[in-house]
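hey so i finally got around to running the thing on that chain from the lab meeting. sorry it took forever, my laptop kept dying and i had to restart like 3 times. anyway pasting the input first so we r on the same page abt which one it is
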Amino acid sequence: MALPKTPPHDCPLCPRLKAFRDANRTKYPDWFNGPVPSFGPLTARILIAGLAPGLQGANRTGRPFTGDWAGDLLYATLLKYGLAKGVYNERPDDGLELVDCRIANAVRCVPPQNKPEPSEIKTCRQFLKSELETLPNVKVILALGKIAHDSVLTILGAKISAHPFKHGVGYDISKFKLISSYHCSRYNTNTGRLTTPMFEDVVKKAKGLAQG
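ok and heres what got predicted. didnt touch it at all, straight out
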């Protein structure tokens, strides 16, 4: 099985992100501070497309959605619906395993203020594209947030205007089913844009589509 393409730990492709990463390595030398690799089995039928590592989350721990609020909601939901097993303890060595799903961020390095620039999203898209091209069993893509949603559409050659981002709405594109959710960030949950039942419903739908 071919492996998805991954950026090196000292990836130089995005100068602004590299500079921010280098500054964090000086400030927090014990943190991961690098492009965060994808997490989950290569045989997964569901690919969860996230946005980017959080500064004190995946950028610190080196595992997607690990160590911040978004991960608390995501992994609790995956555990609830049998898409993960073990215990999530906010550490990459907690033994948590994903079941039939894999997580890959649209942008691999932490951006300042959690806001990647369009050029950075475009540059990093090659790695998400590689996931979709090399993972043999992916049927469903669960995009968390509009940036991930639009990146997936671009990779698949689909028009964004014809497939607008809407929470819980699914599209059939090429051989994939794309379903999107508001990102499970603290901001979205604190403001009520995304509730736990709303997020659980989308994850449940994604699992159903993958098994259908």
